[in-house]
Give the backbone structure.
Amino acid sequence: MQQSFFVLSGEHIELAKDEVVSISESYDSKTTYSTEPRLVITRSRIPWNKIAKRATFVRIAGRISGTFTDVSKIKLPVHKPTTFACRTINLSSAKIDSRSLEKRAGTALKEKWGAKVSLSKPALIVYLIVTDTKKYLGYSHNIPEPKRPRKPIKYPHELDWKLSRAMVNLSGLREGKTLCDPFCGTGTILLEAQSMGIQGIGIDFDFEMCGITKRNLAANSYKGTVINSTYHDIEKIMDAIDAILTDLPYGTASKSSTLPKKLIKDFVSIIPKKKKLVMMYKKGLDIEELSEAKKYEKYRHKSLTRVIAVS
């Protein structure tokens, strides 16, 4: 099994860790993992770059070749690269002389390979990852940044694209699967899903919002289905979908006359237990039916904290 590392950006740490693990497990149910602050290490059949392309909050990723004590004696199981660079990632609580560490590692590898050092566009990057417990040796080749979906029409208070993408990944869906967002709004969740090869069906009772979602999908040549109706229509398509993901409207964004807590209760009641549900809602609206769900709190401002529940 491959051992891969994922250095997290620092945003929403708990969610970010679970997102990486969820992506890996969706492809390989036998994935095992360990974590340290801002670091996830997986053992899986899945290549690190397949996970990194989907993960929202991963800053740096690559393959782990082991640990090191003496940086001048490091070895890597790779063929001689045309160019390379050494970079230190200090995740420990101690100060480290990164430049000296990188220079010693670079000198040792240059003597071994006879390859040139390139700090701007190296063919191979060697990572010296230092935590409070271990010193990991990792490496990766450069991969292009994922292409972001275009969203020409936006709306105030709409769901952040990063959280939308993380929610899709927490659902455990792979390419070719289908999700439904029964409160799709401007289509952020559908856009993120389709950018990862996951099909989407959107439902919204606001005719204008359905039109916006269709235009946003069309701007990316995506062919998602958008239904102008209430969330109850989800019962008609339950056999055609693999998961339900949504951001429940609140405040001025909600045009429903139903009280927010009752809306959540009524909505959850029609979702079969066998279907994966990832839902965002305002803190304080928890219901018994979601008591066993994994939850992540996202502070927005002093009067609003949002919760992502995964069940």
